[in-house]
DNA sequence: TATTGTTATACTCTATAACTATA
DNA sequence: TATAGTTATAGAGTATAACAATA
């Protein structure tokens, strides 16, 4: 069935189209694919998130990263060991609480994060190129309200 | 450092906050958690997507579902076999092309999809409860423009 | 008793390759 | 030769349980 203008007319809107979660997932998958294409050989999204948190909060602990980024300590341990092996971070034992390792970016790590960040933002310019700057800001605001405990 | 009003003042915006992909991922993860909580024992998001596509387009093929939803045929095969086993779908051999199976929801499947759909939407009311109806519509529009080839 | 970091392990999801049957 | 459906398998990502060290 077509309208007078020749466009297809749906008697009912597609079911999936109603589900915000579906749109979220599809957009996120597309973004992840772009990230992988741009930086996949060097860093992965979750690992980059962890490094950004260390950059934003020098001295943050693995347990705190786990809580903030919803990652299991058990999965964080080998990741941080790898960062250490690549010379991206330093792990300093806390003087007062011997259980705790304070995490810091090394100079190399800081430079790498800055580089990756720049390239990730450039990649997002491509992924979200269909949206204007204002629309992206609107989107950012709406999304952050969803997942942050606001 | 605090402002005169006592709120924490960031000299620089957190790095992660700039990345739209990060917000997308966090929001999507939250939505998936809600979906799992509401329907996890009965149906999973990807499986629900597949059933919705069959509902929207009776006679659709597995290969076409794979293209539309970015799923591998190889992973679709056991899923459709399971749907068949649960009596949710029927697979009818195409009369003209013997390679093709035309997929249709059974009566049971149609009822199940309708039920799940209602509950998924109710769950989204909770997940996105912080947004107004207009804001959700705005979000839906922006997201769909990102991942659809517009 | 609770928490941190760690190891081992299981489970889910997705990707790749190869096969058959049809066209 | 190309495509549909299928099978087997490998890899990545995530979750669970248990442990030693420390508080």
Model description:
Two copies of one chain form a homodimer. Chain A contains seven helices and two strands, in the order H-H-H-H-H-E-E-H-H. Chain A has a domain at 41-121: Winged helix-like DNA-binding domain superfamily/Winged helix DNA-binding domain (Arc Repressor Mutant, subunit A). The model of chain A is unreliable at 1-6 (pLDDT under 50). The first copy, chain A, has helices spanning 15-18, 20-39, 45-56, 62-69, 73-85, 107-127, 133-147; strands at 89-93, 101-105. Chains A and B meet through helix 1, helix 2, helix 3, helix 6 and helix 7 of A and helix 1, helix 2, helix 3, helix 6 and helix 7 of B. Chain A binds a DNA duplex (23 and 23 nucleotides) through helix 5.
């Amino acid at each position: 069935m077509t309208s007078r203008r020749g466009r297809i007319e749906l008697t009912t809107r597609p079911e999936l189209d109603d589900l915000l979660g579906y749109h979220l997932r599809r957009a996120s998958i597309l973004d992840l694919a772009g990230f992988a294409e741009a930086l996949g050989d060097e860093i992965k999204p979750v690992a980059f998130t962890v490094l950004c948190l260390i950059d934003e909060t020098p001295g943050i602990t693995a347990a705190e990263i786990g809580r903030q980024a919803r990652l299991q300590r058990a999965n964080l341990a080998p990741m941080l060991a790898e960062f250490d092996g690549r010379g991206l971070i330093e792990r300093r034992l806390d003087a007062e609480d011997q259980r705790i390792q304070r995490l810091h970016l090394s100079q190399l790590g800081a430079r790498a994060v800055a580089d990756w960040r720049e390239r990730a933002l450039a990649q997002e310019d491509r992924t979200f190129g269909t949206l204007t700057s204002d629309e992206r800001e609107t989107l950012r605001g709406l999304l952050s309200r969803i997942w942050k405990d606001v």
